[in-house]
Design goal:
The complex is a heterodimer.
Chain A: H1 2-7, H2 11-28, H3 38-48, E1 56-62, H4 68-84, E2 88-93, H5 98-113, E3 121-126, H6 130-137, H7 141-144, E4 172-177, H8 181-190, E5 197-201, H9 203-214, E6 221-223, H10 224-239, H11 245-279
Parallel strand pairs in A: 1-2, 1-4, 2-3, 4-5, 5-6
Helix pairs in contact in A: 2-11, 4-5, 4-10, 6-8, 10-11
Chain B: H1 2-19, H2 27-62, H3 68-73, H4 75-84, H5 97-127, E1 136-137, E2 140-141, H6 143-166, H7 175-218
Antiparallel strand pairs in B: 1-2
């Protein structure tokens, strides 16, 4: 009887309970201890061991507001790591809204870490044409980005750009991806110019990038909120800073996953019980 | 400061209006949906004007200091762009084939090399794995680790071959071919399962992000 009632339950009750589980987890949860995934650890170690003459990373924010909850925590943790290691940061984006979103995190973290615009970091901005931009950087970055994003000044006016011309002068290109632009980074920047490429992506597309990780085409991968939380944990463990939203949100994530698993089990059990009773 | 409060309230109101669809379709949801579509279109138009058309054509053409020929050449892509719009008029739509042919030609020219060097060959190379992987410890074969490393590669190679078999349609999927393709579909299903797991995580992350906004930025409970 109870199983039949449960089978007919209005799904809006399930939504409501899920919301309650999440709200409680967000309010009551502190931070979670993580066991970082090997692919995220690989990325962290790669950044840790960047050679002195290549302490420059090019970050491409290829996402928009819809992917902020997943990718923004990673960006903050990654920037914290870079500024701690005195690695120069160049920011660009292939998505129209990616650059202002990236700038929000960049300015925020730079202020906290005491990094200076033009010396420790620079916003290159957005240029149309994904393939042309990626291929253009391989020949001369100034041909693609003549002026910076923030003040529209020629990029040569900034000390950070001294000696940076092509991928040869950049230690790591990291694409923060909510779509397939990362595949263009891999095909062109890695395939044609042998640049070191890493990917931090939303969970939806993360599984697509594992094939490139397996083939050693990317040096590391941080997938979804879990990847962001892993990176936050690694930075915090090593430097004592960088704990943020990613680690906190993973408590709510885990609680919601448990709730879904429980509902799946109950749903299947109910289905079996009801069909058995009907057969009798 | 006041602007921050006002915009936070607007964002919270729109979030709740979107969530209200979970109960049932209603005018608040419709309003929020239309505002989203409209503002996205407007944002993209502004972005196109300020970050595409103006810096790549208007400024270099009218204010550029480079050679005249270089400036006049910029008219060509604009003409091609306008030709693309001829699709709207059926009588002139054949003209849109030129810019399409141009983009396909450029795309294929740049992309072909990168696709082969950047995707096809490395992926192919990563699939050609040895089926026996001896793992040594202090000069002696570690049987347990050798077994697992070899098994991992065997599963990998079998998965690739059987999955490819599933997509082989030149002969009927019966007998040996049918059996191997059934194994292939099992691997495909496992792949879909992993992908779906990631999908669930992604959607939950977005929901958590919105709830955090409501609790932290709007209600200031946490």
């Amino acid at each position: 009887m109870i199983w039949e009632k449960l089978a007919k339950i209005d799904r809006r009750w399930l939504f409501l309970f899920e919301a309650i589980v999440l709200i409680l987890a967000i309010i009551l949860g502190k931070t979670m201890t993580m066991k970082p995934a090997p692919e995220t650890k690989k990325l962290f170690n790669f950044v840790e061991n960047l050679p002195e003459n290549k302490k420059v990373v090019l970050i491409s924010t290829d996402y928009d507001a819809a992917s902020m909850p997943e990718l923004q925590p990673f960006l903050r943790a990654f920037l914290t790591h870079c500024f701690k290691k005195k690695i120069k940061v160049l920011l660009m984006g292939h998505w129209p809204a990616g650059v202002p979103i990236g700038m929000e995190a960049l300015e925020n973290v730079a202020k906290k870490m005491g990094a200076k615009y033009g010396e420790d970091y620079l916003a290159l901005g957005f240029r149309p044409g994904i393939t042309a931009v990626i291929a253009g950087i391989g020949k001369e970055i100034r041909d693609v980005f003549k002026v910076d994003y923030k003040y529209s000044k020629p990029i040569d006016e900034y000390p950070i750009m001294r000696g940076i011309h092509t991928y040869d002068n950049i230690g790591l290109v990291i694409g923060l991806e909510a779509g397939a632009v990362g595949e263009s980074w891999i095909a062109l920047a890695w395939g044609r110019f042998k640049a070191n490429v890493a990917i931090a992506s939303t969970a939806v597309v993360a599984s697509d990038y594992y094939a490139y990780l397996q083939a050693n085409q990317i040096v590391g991968l941080a997938g979804g909120l879990k990847g962001a939380a892993d990176y936050e944990y690694l930075v915090w463990k090593k430097y004592g800073v960088g704990k943020g939203w990613g680690l906190k949100a993973m408590i709510a994530q885990s609680a919601a996953q448990l709730y879904i698993i429980l509902m799946l089990l109950l749903g299947n059990l109910g289905y079996i019980m009801v069909t058995r009773r009907r057969k009798k | 400061m006041i602007a921050d409060i006002i915009f936070t309230w607007i964002a919270a109101g729109l979030t709740l209006a979107i969530f209200s669809f979970l109960y049932k379709d209603n005018p608040f949801y419709k309003l929020a949906e239309h505002i989203y579509v409209g503002s996205s279109a407007a944002y993209n138009f502004i972005w196109f004007w300020f970050f595409m058309f103006r810096p790549t054509f208007l400024e270099p053409f009218f204010k550029g200091t480079g050679p005249a020929l270089e400036r006049y050449l910029l008219i060509l892509p604009v003409i091609l762009g306008i030709l693309m719009l001829t699709r709207i008029v059926p009588k002139w739509s054949w003209l849109s084939r030129w810019p399409i042919a141009f983009s396909i030609g450029i795309g294929a020219g740049i992309g072909l090399y990168s696709v082969i060097i950047g995707w096809l060959l490395p992926q192919l190379k990563a699939t050609l794995l040895p089926l026996y992987v001896p793992v040594y410890q202090n000069g002696v074969i570690d049987i347990w680790r050798t077994f697992w490393a070899s098994l991992n590669n065997i599963i990998f190679v079998v998965a690739v071959l059987t999955t490819l078999t599933y997509f082989y349609f030149s002969s009927p999927q019966k007998g040996f071919l049918g059996k191997t393709s059934r194994i292939g579909i099992t691997f495909i299903m496992i792949g879909f399962g992993a992908k779906f797991g990631y999908d669930v995580m992604a959607r939950l992350s977005l929901l958590i992000g919105r709830l955090y906004f409501l609790l932290h930025d709007w209600l200031r409970i946490i």
